[in-house]
């Protein structure tokens, strides 16, 4: 027995020495590349409150992709990335049409009228969409819109056939107009909610979010501010009549930092608090959560893509500021209904070169760095951020890696999806990361990341584990030196700790680089597709290691490439 113990200790010592040698070698190599070492201090003993799963929210324009082959595959993957339920938001759930899927278009034919003007409700396609979510344990953000053709004050022209390169303003046709009869609209909403309760059960529908429209401060709404407010009152009243415990919210404006947006957002907020309700005549309107959108603004500079994270964060901050200014509303959940590096998911890279960040690791590192700052902004404004919707899904039957803002291409996961897998592995109590690094949320908000790289971390823990996400991000998509990271952990248990190191970079968790190495085939073979699918999964950077803990402290040294993301997952016996 003693001999076994001696052998075990010798093996353990050898493994420890090997680990120390490898981390020291990695650190030296990174310093040789010329990057100043960066020390990140994480104190697991200092709780910063809950790390809400604000990342577990996704959305897309084309609702009919939901039940198509690659759509189902991606939704299945998204539904399993964490323990929290995943919320899904889609457009066009009330649009008239045959259910054909197309770019920036979708339809369900939920509402038509017979020859005498009597409503005809058909929930077949809506059910097909929601069934796909519910079967996977996902939760709809049930977007109430857009206007059925039979109800629109301007029913013709109604359908667009937009494609990348076409004028974006050409899509806003009859579906974007107010109803010619608000009572018929309200009855449509009432029937939809009642049908949902009958089909899925009251408890299930109570867990959804019902919202009105999308970006009504721009051309998605061809009515006035007052007409939208009137529509909201009729909609909220109908939802609550059908299910008093249902959650209803809005207004889903985009760009709270814009003056034009505030001219919509603030009157809406004033109305739901102090205005005369269009339906009841009483003061105020039912509202259970508040929504707005925030986007970045990339451009091409000197032949490369330059992101602008600051633009997105300033919009988020202004939205939080507006909500916080209303004492009756500031504690309501906030959903950033679309939260992305820019505004058009269906605008492909081949037509819009500023979107060339989407296939590779720039999108994944941007996502890691920006989500961490959303937590910071919400905490600074003392608001209740419930979710931030990533407006990215998949585009069925499109060329491989065309450069849409999507999470997968032809069923193969792109690097950005692996950031969400990392988020899904993080425990739910946020812990302190010392903010004496080059950037904090204030500097990124005000300046974006235009000077040195943003090398930082987000960390969390529970009783059995901890996780630290580390990124090396820069707004300019140009080559840069690896970062030499020294991750110093305190508050660890004085017992056996195992580290699993996951990585997204040019070599790991990157189907795009694998595809390019194949020669960028336009029609990959079955064998190539299998290889790409494997490359698209989250991969470990190294074999699991036992961590040497002394006085509840330990250090991990590693090199992190520019636009790379690491997740260090720690578990203990």
From TrEMBL:
Limits of the Glycosyl hydrolases family 39 N-terminal catalytic domain: 39-536
Keyword annotations: Glycosidase, Hydrolase, Signal
Coiled coil: none
InterPro entries, alphabetized: GH (IPR017853), GH39_cat (IPR049166), Glyco_hydro_39 (IPR000514), Glycosyl_Hydrolase_39 (IPR051923)
Gene3D superfamilies (UniProt xref): Glycosidases, Glycosyl hydrolase domain, family 39
Signal peptide stretch: 1-32
Keyword Manganese belongs to the record: no
PANTHER family named in the record: ALPHA-L-IDURONIDASE
Protein name listed in UniProt: Beta-xylosidase
């Amino acid at each position: 027995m003693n001999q076994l113990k001696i052998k075990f200790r010798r093996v353990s010592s050898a493994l420890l020495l090997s680990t120390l040698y490898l981390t020291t070698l990695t650190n030296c190599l990174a310093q040789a590349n010329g990057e100043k070492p960066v020390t990140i201090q994480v104190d697991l003993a200092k709780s910063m409150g809950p790390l809400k799963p604000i990342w577990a929210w996704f959305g897309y324009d084309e609702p009919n992709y939901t039940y198509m082959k690659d759509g189902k595959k991606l939704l299945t993957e998204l539904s399993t990335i964490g323990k929290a339920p995943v919320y899904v938001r889609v457009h066009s759930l009330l649009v008239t049409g045959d259910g054909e899927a197309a770019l920036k278009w979708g339809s369900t034919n939920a509402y038509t009228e017979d020859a005498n003007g009597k409503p005809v409700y058909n929930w077949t396609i809506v059910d097909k969409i929601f069934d796909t979510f519910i079967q996977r344990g996902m939760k709809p953000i049930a977007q109430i819109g857009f206007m059925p053709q039979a109800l629109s004050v301007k029913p013709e022209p109604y359908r667009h056939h937009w494609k990348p390169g076409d004028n974006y303003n050409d899509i806003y046709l009859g579906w974007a107009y107010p109803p010619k009869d608000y009572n018929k609209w309200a009855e449509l909403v009432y029937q939809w909610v009642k049908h949902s309760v009958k089909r899925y059960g009251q408890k299930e529908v109570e867990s959804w979010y019902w919202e009105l429209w999308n970006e009504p401060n721009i051309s998605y709404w061809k009515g006035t501010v007052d007409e939208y407010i009137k529509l909201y009152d009729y909609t909220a009243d109908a939802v609550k009549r059908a299910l008093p415990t249902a959650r209803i919210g809005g207004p889903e404006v985009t760009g709270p930092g814009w003056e034009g947006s505030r001219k919509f957002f603030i009157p809406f907020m004033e109305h739901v608090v102090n205005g005369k309700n269009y339906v009841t005549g009483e003061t105020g309107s039912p509202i259970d959560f508040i929504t707005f959108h925030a986007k970045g603004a990339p451009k091409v500079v000197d032949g490369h893509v330059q992101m602008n994270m600051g633009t997105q964060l300033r919009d988020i901050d202004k939205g939080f500021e507006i909500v916080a200014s209303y004492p009756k509303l500031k504690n309501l959940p906030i959903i950033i209904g679309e939260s992305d590096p820019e505004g058009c998911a269906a605008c492909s890279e081949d037509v819009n070169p500023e979107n060339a960040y989407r296939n590779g690791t720039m999108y994944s590192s941007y996502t890691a760095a920006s989500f961490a700052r959303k937590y910071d902004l919400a905490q600074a404004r003392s608001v209740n951020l419930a979710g931030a919707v990533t407006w990215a899904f998949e585009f069925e039957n499109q060329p491989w890696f065309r450069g849409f803002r999507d999470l997968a291409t032809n069923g193969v996961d792109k690097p950005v999806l692996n950031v969400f897998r990392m988020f899904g592995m993080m425990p739910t109590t946020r812990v302190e990361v010392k903010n004496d690094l080059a950037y904090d949320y204030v500097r990124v908000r005000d300046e974006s990341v235009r000077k040195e790289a943003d090398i930082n971390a987000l960390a969390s823990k529970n009783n059995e584990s901890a996780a630290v996400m580390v990124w090396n991000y820069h707004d300019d998509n140009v080559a840069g030196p690896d970062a030499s990271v020294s991750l110093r952990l305190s508050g660890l248990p004085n017992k056996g700790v195992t580290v699993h190191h996951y990585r997204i970079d040019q070599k790991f968790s990157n189907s795009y680089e694998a595809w390019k190495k194949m020669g960028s085939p336009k029609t990959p073979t079955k064998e190539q597709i299998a290889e790409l699918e494997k490359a698209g999964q989250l991969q470990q950077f190294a074999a699991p290691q036992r961590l040497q803990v002394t006085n509840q402290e330990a250090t991990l040294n590693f090199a992190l490439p520019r636009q790379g993301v690491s997740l260090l997952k720690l578990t203990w016996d």
